[in-house]
Specification:
Blueprint lengths: L13 E7 L2 E7 L2 E6 L2 E8 L3 H9 L1 E6 L6 H8 L14 E3 L5 E3 L5 E13 L2 E13 L8 H10 L22 E4 L5 E2 L35 E4 L1
Antiparallel strand pairs: 1-2, 1-5, 3-4, 4-9, 5-8, 6-7, 8-9, 10-11, 10-12
The structure holds fe (iii) ion.
Length: 229
């Protein structure tokens, strides 16, 4: 079997949210699709170990916010690489409650739909939830981002201006051109580019970044980075 075939399958990229007893959570998912149009049935595949799975399983409700081409990668990191068991993902993300109570994103979303589960299927590590759509809204005509677009952008992050204006190394043996890669999401820190959005100026060696700095894509700490050649 050639597993590369699965990289040829097209998917979108979504924030799937749910609510249980007044508590809300959300996660990134690519396995969302429409099944029928009359009635409007959709399906999602959700990992059983995720908190959002527990919420959907118990309330039978979920909402799907559709992410645009322009979505910042750190929003995907925020919803995709952190657990709602550790942080309140909506503390820093503008949202509103839909008719079902499930939250939908007010920013970085081109629309959303809410659905009520009609059947769930056990798929081993995941559940597949089939659901009837009960409410929808479109916010913008921007193109949705695909899963392939996301992987392309992730690969190109950090690979930018590294070959130009590379500073001279040699401060106390700290290699200024040593790149580090995030083990969780694949983001590459390039000292020549720095991370100006978080105040890390170009020319900053990885070792000189403050210890409380986190991966701009997925939010993990410096200890989750490894040098790459
Ligand atoms: Fe990361």
């Amino acid at each position: 079997m050639d597993f590369n075939i699965f990289k040829k399958v097209s998917y979108g990229l979504y924030v799937v949210t749910s609510i249980r007893e007044g508590k809300i959570n959300g996660q990134i998912a690519n396995t969302f699709f429409q099944i029928t149009s009359d009635p409007v049935l959709v399906a999602i595949g959700i990992n059983k170990s995720n908190l959002t799975h527990a919420y959907i399983k118990s309330s039978g409700i979920f909402a799907v916010s559709i992410l645009p081409q322009s979505v910042p990668l750190d929003l995907i990191g925020h919803f995709g690489f952190k657990s709602g068991r550790e942080i309140d993902k909506f503390a820093s993300v503008p949202f509103e409650a839909g008719e079902t109570g499930a939250p939908y994103l007010l920013e970085n979303s081109i629309g959303y739909l809410e659905a009520q589960v009609v059947e769930s299927f056990d798929a081993g590590t995941h559940s597949v939830f089939m659901a009837r759509v009960v409410n929808t809204a479109v916010f913008s005509n921007e193109e949705p981002i695909t899963y392939a677009d996301y992987h392309y952008r992730k690969r190109s992050t950090g690979a930018g201006p590294s070959q130009q204006g590379k500073p001279d190394g040699g401060r106390g043996g700290r290699p200024l051109d040593q790149k580090y890669q995030c083990l969780i999401c694949g983001y590459v820190y390039d000292p020549a580019a720095g991370d100006p959005e978080t105040g890390i100026m170009p020319g900053t060696a990885f070792a000189d970044i403050p210890d409380d700095w986190v991966c701009p894509i997925c939010g993990v700490g410096k200890d989750q980075f490894e040098p790459i050649t």
